[in-house]
Amino acid sequence: MQRYVVIDLETTGNAPAKTDKIIEVGIVVIEQDTIVDSYSTLLHPNKEIPPFITNLTGISDDDVMDAPSFEEIADEISALFADSYLIAHNVPFDLGFLNEELANSNRIKLTNPVLDTVELARILFPSAPSFKLNQLTEYLQIQHDQPHRALSDAFVTAKLFLKLKEKLASLPYETIDQLLQVEKWLQSDAYELFAYYREQNLFAEENHEIATYQGLAYRRINIGELDSCTINLSFGDYLDSIYEANGSLEKAMQKYEKRAGQREMSEIIFDAFQMKQHALIEAETGTGKSLAYLIPAIYDAVCKDKRVVISTYTTQLQSQLLEAEIPLIRQLIPFSFHVALLKGKAHYISLEKLQQELLEPQQSNYDIALTIAMILVWLTETETGDIDEIQLPSSGYWFFRRISADMEEGVDPSSPWFFRSHYQHAKRRAQQAHIVITNHALLCTDMFHPSVLLPVYDRAIIDEAHHFEATVSKHYGLKLDYMHMHFTLNQLGRTDEQKLIHTVLSHYTSGLSQKTKTTWDTLIDDARYETDDLFRYLFQYVVDQRKRDKSYSDIGRTQYRFEQTKEDPKKWAVIKEMVARLIFYLRDLIHGLTMIEADLQQEQFLHEDKEKLLAGTERLQTFIDQLEQLFLVDNSMQEVKWMEIETYGAKNAVYLYSEPTDVADLLMDGFFSVKESVILTSATLTMEHSFRFIMDRLGLQHEQTITKQIASPFSYADQVQLMVPNDFPNIKFGQTDDFIYATCDAILSLAAITNGRMLVLFTSYDMLRRSHSLLKELMENDTYALIAQGISSGSRERLKKNFQTFDQAILLGTSSFWEGVDIPGEDLSCLVIVRLPFQPPDHPVLEAKSNFLKEQGKNPFMEYSLPNAVIRFKQGFGRLIRSSSDRGIVFICDSRIVTARYGKYFVRSIPEVPLLFDTTHNLMEKAEKWF
Question: What positions does the record give for the motif labelled DEAH box (predicted)?
Fold first, then answer.
């Protein structure tokens, strides 16, 4: 069947079964890979078109006044689909509407085979940044003249489909053969399409970039010996050639403005390296700190032929370094250098594990089928095997864990998979590199675990260093939850379930003795029961403890810090007994795995089966160690332990955590005293221009550490107005609803002045949710697009892009939006900070660290809570001004910044800006004049 009919509909909303109707139909016909026909009509929906649909599509009630109803043209539309595939970008939406309208018109519903271009694009272009039609067409360079008009959308969907066919034609035979194995679980009826290209590609010309092994096709990875690099420049001349007038930076960048602080930072880092000292450098927004630290790091690494490790907190900054800063530096300097990115094993795919999974009978699960299909195509493109290059469906990450390099047991260089391992290639690249870019998590794992993950290094630069202490704490602590334990026990399974044990047994004719089978099945059932029982009891324990707390609110996630000596002895004895019983069953399961291996040893026992059983043993042993550490060992002085539950979640969904109360000594002994020079940098390291807080938290010695603040090149006094209302209701006196109302009222007043273009930062998701609901209520005619974290769907980056595409939009964010969100220029003119970002006083880590400081005779508020809040506040403040031409207002709804004794620490920790403390009405008048 070579006829494809592409459809796109514009509708009054998303619910055909309720009251929504079609207002425009666009159809395009493809035959022999050519667009041969098209059809378009407006339709009268017999109801008003909502204003936001008119805004989106440009179709108004006037446009459809004389248009036919769907019933009048139903037969005409049905006839177009005779003997053809139906194609749409999200088939369930278009076909759902079409069939609802056909049924309402007493016509037969369409039952054509379908091809969904969203699904096929996810499979065939897995690295695309988004699968929305607009973004896909931009990525694939398809001309799209009228987005959100049916015929234009149908035309670009047709062109997208032709690109998808081109991509299929380019894939290796082995890849398409594997795609055919999972096709039956896809939504698209793609069997004929895949089968046609499999036959076509059987005798295709050999592609030298693709290798195949045991039925898998993947991109070849060639790591030869790298060229040697030399420098014939002094460091001073090197910096002159980059930073000074007529230097390479000025030539490479349009509108180059010299930043004195950037060169100064490069010099400080080089000096610290030469003197073998550590350094803390706060480089305010606009310094250009990434370039400032890369330039000396590269010079030093090439000169000494010794690597420098650069660690970031976010993958976003890693991408920026690799995709923007490193290519720019290659243009700036006259010698070559080598850079590698290295992440933890869990990020890299294992071809061996994937191949083993593909051999097993697959469970019918759409997400897993889609995940496998995406990965098979991605393998023909990726040079790194780093799964972060693609966006898997949410439950696809569970499947990826099974096929990640983390699941490979030991390293056997004689294995045929060894030189095909993406993780081993990444390690080898890192060993050959001058600069190794990694993340704080891997750096910490490497720091505290004897198995060396990073190649040997003496000098490191830690960017986003304000997160370093928290990452160290997490990595030195532990996390255990019901879902993870339940998943592991389920993956092992009974002997009669299609899980790991059953799969292993299916490889042997002799099988297990009946006794071993019965023992194993009883043990796995008991372990599952005990796990569920323990976590249900812990859930109820947290609920009961929290009910005794008068200030407790049961919204969202509930945390409870536990200390053995302070718990109810009777109830705690029950918990300890339940934990001991579960540990007993887990130990028996380990013994059971040994029995299974012993039973099967009479045949040739397969290496991969041995590995699978060993991996199971190790995971069970980890659970035993963690349960003992959490419940049976009392070290409350050194550690904080807590439980978290979702108040309205499953009654066994409990998360258990443990972290050290203080990491200063750990870092001093295990890191700073063994490394020659560590540079820690961030835009926010000081409170009131002092580094004392961060130095104490990280255990840095004052005499061995260089400290430097580098001021921003921006003229904040001219670019920013800081406004604080003096007439907001006081939350302290239970006026939360009134406070939220006043906040929303101010947001809409400011939005009218700035045409939206506003970021609102909250400290609690509950307040964000309530404000979002109230703003929708107060807003007339949906004047502003409201984009809210956790309510609007999409990642942080996606929400930011959506915000930038609307002319008038308000972006509401919490937690991760306080930093790393870069919205330069006129897209952002106003920043609203709803509350000063103090952690809730009952947060387990804050509570424990406060007690720890109290015992040392220190003031926990001044030594911990306040500095953390100030650093967070500085991060939030930094969202507004991202270039020398930006202007804007920072509106702080929390008057404590002026009225509280500690307010001055916040004000003195940001650049000097005019501060206005006045009534809301007066502030609005001043804002209007200023803009």
Answer: 463-466
CA atoms within 13 A on the CB side of 480: 24
287 marked ligand binding residue: yes
Residue 606: partners with Cβ closer than 8 Å, 6 or more residues away: 507
- Nearest Cα neighbor of 81 from 100, 68, 95 is 95
Q: Known binder of ligand: residue 167?
A: no
d(CA 681, CA 297): 14
Q: Strands 830-833, 758-761: parallel, antiparallel or unpaired by DSSP?
A: parallel
Q: What's the pLDDT score for residue 550?
A: 47
Q: Residue 41's beta-bridge partner residues?
A: 25
Q: How far apart are CA 184 and CA 182, in angstroms?
A: 6
Specify whether the CB–CB gap between 310 and 293 falls below 8 A: yes
Alpha helices in 360-499 (DSSP H): 366-378, 396-402, 422-432, 440-448, 468-476, 482-492
Which pLDDT does position 931 carry in this prediction? 81
Which one-letter DSSP state was computed for residue 61?
Answer: T
Phi first, then psi: give them for residue 927, nearest 5 degrees: -65, -45
Contact 728, 893 (CB under 8 A): yes
Which DSSP category does 878 fall into?
T
Q: How far is it, in rounded angstroms, from Cα 77 to Cα 74?
A: 5
Task: Tell me: pLDDT of 553 over 50.
Answer: no
Q: How far apart are CA 13 and CA 8, in angstroms?
A: 14
Q: Would the pLDDT of 332 be above 70?
A: yes
In single-letter form, the type of residue at position 62 comes to D
Nearest to 659 by CA among 887, 458, 849, 448: 849
- The answer to whether the CB of 466 falls within 8 A of the CB of 684 is yes
**Residue in 283, 285, 234, 233 with CA at minimum distance from that of residue 263:** 283
Cα of first residue to Cα of last residue in the chain, in angstroms, is: 62
284 is in an annotated binding site: yes
Is 825 annotated as belonging to a binding site? no
* Residue range 842-855, pLDDT digits in tens: 788 888 888 888 88
Report whether 121 belongs to an annotated binding site. no
Residue 425 near residue 342 (C-beta atoms within 8 A): no
How many angstroms separate the CA atoms of 384 and 218, rounded? 11
**Is-contact 884 714, C-beta < 8 A?**
yes
CA atoms of 489 and 500, how far apart (whole Å)? 10
Residues 6+ apart with CB under 8 A from 465: 280, 680, 681, 682, 685, 694
User: In whole angstroms, what is the distance from residue 148 CA to residue 8 CA?
Assistant: 9
Distance between CA atoms of 118 and 95, rounded to whole angstroms?
A: 14
- Tell me, what DSSP letter sits at residue 787? E
Tokens of 319: 């991408």
Contact 194, 184 (CB under 8 A): no
pLDDT digit string (tens) for 573-600?
999 999 999 999 999 999 999 988 887 7
Q: Which helix (H) or strand (E) holds 218?
A: strand 216-219
Residue 12 assigned as binding residue: no
Q: Six-digit token pair at 673?
A: 């005293």
For 21, other C-beta atoms within 10 Å of its C-beta total 22
283 has binding-site annotation? yes
Stated as kind and residue range, the H or E segment containing 460 is: strand 459-462
Report the side by side order of strands in the sheet with 22-31: 34-42, 22-31, 3-11, 85-88, 114-116
Q: How many residues does this entry show for the chain?
A: 931
- E strand or H helix at 316, and its extent? helix 315-320
Is 169 annotated among the ligand-binding residues?
no
User: % helix / strand / coil in the chain, to the nearest 5?
Assistant: 50, 15, 35
Instruction: Tell me how many degrees the CA angle 798-799-803 measures, rounded to the nearest 5.
Output: 115
3-state secondary structure of 435: strand
What tokens appear for 420 in the block?
A: 């095909």
